[in-house]
């Protein structure tokens, strides 16, 4: 019996010495110590051993088993260490190589245009005031002199939450809130997201941004409006920019106008960019309607004011010569990184 056990032990030693990898070691373990392994077979043959010899032989089998396990374990540790070393050598980091650039996000063209507008108007003493995106019908329409039967109130143009609550279609509501506070004079711009039930195309989106402005003080005239907006246009599009006011109609201003700027691509001669016009429409504006002042408890005989509204996307599209508004909302990093 002892010879048999020694033979198994020697064979194990030899096989382990010759095994090339962890799989081979495992095969040896199964072959000798496994359920049908050679050593296990020896244990099973114990029943043929005389009862008085069993403890002694059992001890010998166990010792042999322990020795083989020790040999396997030692070989395994050695192999694992070798694998680890090889891995460390193959995965060496060359610290002199340039690092992968950590890509951070980029300011959105809308945001760049907004910060530009804010810089210009804060420079003229304006405050930046934000209002709620979910607004009462009164602040979005009625207080701005837009009566119930006005086409702008059509449910097809406006997202109503219920009969009285809606998603604001313009940021002017913030101006009404400010007027109601009764702290005069007012010099403010109100930037923000607005919502209209438009289909998405190259120039429309159900959600876009406005930057509206309001000035109310004693003795404000149309000359103040013109001077302010001309200055803003020159800051935005360059010192050579000229402005032109065309009569228009808005319910909340009287008189009202739309302002064009001379094309900053061709200087006004006419080109593809301005569709041969030489001028580009940029904003709506006008003197605040006396009725709008009255509704917010401001005496129109004492105070006058002007208001204007930029479309933020329009400024971004023009400034960065983007021809499709949808690109602004896709948030494709490759597109945004250009600006
Ligand atoms: Zn042009």
Secondary-structure blueprint of this entry?
Elements: H1 2-18, H2 22-33, H3 38-44, H4 54-90, H5 109-123, E1 127-128, E2 134-136, H6 137-140, E3 165-167, H7 172-180, E4 186-195, E5 207-217, H8 222-237, E6 243-250, E7 253-262, E8 279-288, H9 290-295, E9 304-311, H10 312-319, H11 327-330, H12 333-336
Parallel strand pairs: 1-4
Antiparallel strand pairs: 2-3, 4-5, 5-9, 6-7, 7-8, 8-9
Helix pairs in contact: 1-2, 1-4, 2-4, 5-10
The chain binds zinc ion.
Please give a structural write-up.
The N and C termini lie far apart (86 Å). The protein has 339 residues and is α+β, with helices and mostly antiparallel strands. The chain is built from 12 helices and 9 strands. A 7-stranded mixed β-sheet has the order 1-4-5-9-8-7-6, with helices on both faces. A two-stranded antiparallel ribbon has the order 2-3. α1 runs antiparallel to α2 (22-33), α2 packs antiparallel against α4 and α5 packs across α10 (312-319). A hairpin with a 2-residue loop joins β6 and β7 (253-262). It has 2 domains: 2-90; 109-336, Bira Bifunctional Protein, Domain 2 (BirA Bifunctional Protein, domain 2, 2-Layer Sandwich), CATH 3.30.930. 41% of the residues lie in helices and 19% in strands. It binds zinc ion (ZN). Zinc ion is lined by residues 263, 265-266, 270-271, 273-274, 278.
């Amino acid at each position: 019996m002892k010879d048999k056990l020694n033979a198994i032990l020697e064979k194990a030693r030899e096989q382990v010495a010759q095994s090339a990898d962890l799989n081979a070691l495992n095969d040896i373990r199964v072959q000798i110590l496994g359920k049908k392994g050679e050593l296990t077979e020896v244990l099973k043959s114990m029943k043929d051993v005389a009862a008085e010899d069993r403890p002694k032989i059992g001890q010998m089998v166990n010792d042999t088993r322990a020795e083989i396990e020790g040999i396997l374990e030692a070989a395994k540790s050695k192999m694992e260490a070798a694998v680890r070393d090889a891995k460390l050598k193959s995965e060496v980091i060359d610290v002199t190589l340039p690092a992968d650039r950590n890509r951070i996000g980029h300011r959105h063209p809308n945001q760049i245009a907004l910060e530009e507008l804010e810089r210009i108007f804060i420079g003229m003493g304006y405050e930046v005031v934000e209002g709620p995106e979910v607004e009462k019908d009164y602040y979005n329409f009625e207080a701005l002199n837009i009566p119930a039967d006005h086409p702008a109130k059509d449910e097809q143009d406006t997202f109503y939450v219920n009969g009285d609550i809606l998603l604001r279609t313009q940021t002017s509501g913030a101006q009404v809130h400010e007027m109601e506070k009764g702290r005069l004079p007012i010099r403010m711009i109100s930037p923000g997201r607005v919502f209209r039930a438009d289909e998405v195309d190259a120039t429309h989106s159900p959600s876009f941004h406005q930057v509206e402005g309001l000035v109310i003080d004693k003795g404000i005239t149309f000359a103040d409006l013109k001077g302010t907006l001309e200055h803003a246009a020159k800051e935005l599009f360059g010192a050579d920019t000229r402005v032109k006011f065309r009569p228009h109609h808005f319910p909340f201003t009287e008189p009202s106008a739309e302002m064009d700027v001379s094309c900053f691509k061709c200087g006004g001669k006419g080109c593809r960019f301005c569709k041969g016009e030489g001028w580009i429409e940029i904003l709506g504006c006008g003197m605040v309607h006396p009725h709008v002042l009255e509704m917010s408890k401001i005496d129109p005989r004492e105070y006058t004011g002007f208001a204007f509204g930029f479309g933020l996307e329009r400024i971004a599209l023009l400034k960065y010569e983007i021809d499709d508004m949808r690109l602004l909302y896709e948030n494709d990093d490759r597109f945004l990184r250009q600006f």
